[in-house]
Amino acid sequence: MARRKKIYEGKAKILYEGPEPGTIVQYFKDDATAFNAEKKDVIDGKGVLNNRLSEFFMTGLNQIGVPTHFIRRLNMREQLVRNCEIIPLEVIVRNYAAGSISKRLGIAEGTQLPRPIVEYCYKDDALGDPLVTEEHIAAFGWAGQQDMDDILSLALRVNDFMSGVMLAVGIRLVDFKIEIGRVYDGDFQRLIVADEISPDSCRLWDIETGQKLDKDVFRRDLGNLTDAYSEVARRLGVLPQSNVNKPTLIN
Known about the structure:
By secondary structure, the chain is an alpha+beta fold. The chain is built from six helices and 14 strands.
């Protein structure tokens, strides 16, 4: 079969034209990056795991009425998604202090926050995805007030779902980031969860041991990234029990 026309290539995924109007094929690469791509490597099997884990989370969100761009998985590395206009923001939800918020505010990593905190970063690799406020978002026209209300609602609903799913398998959802897209049905616009939800975009800690099961394993040289992601997939039932460390996934 002829290779589809490439639309965009990012650090972790490639987007191709979809087979149907209004669709895109999202391909998950094995590339791993950190610190705004200053640290890079290729991790065998990472793309396969992220494809299946993102399918798992997006399907669950769709089932509880949280709209996403996910349509269906095509194969081990590709999924069919709905084309949408991405709002140029990373939406970050924090349940525990970790990473940049610990550095900015001097809060010890692992401290439970009084309530989930939602932050926004402007998506621009050249600028390092800087933290922005709702005032910036409104002033520069990235999203209107109704959009921001909807984004906040979506982010907190995703947090409720993800927190519960992870707690059930002994994993603490420390924080995560999502992207939001606009889709149009005639003159009607609505917002949906887009991009991916995977250990690349979440901080996941084992509740009992505090072991990190996310991209911090790569950022901080804490072990094998595929092993960490495979453990998440195994606990969620995406990997068979016998393949704890192998990204050979259930069809």
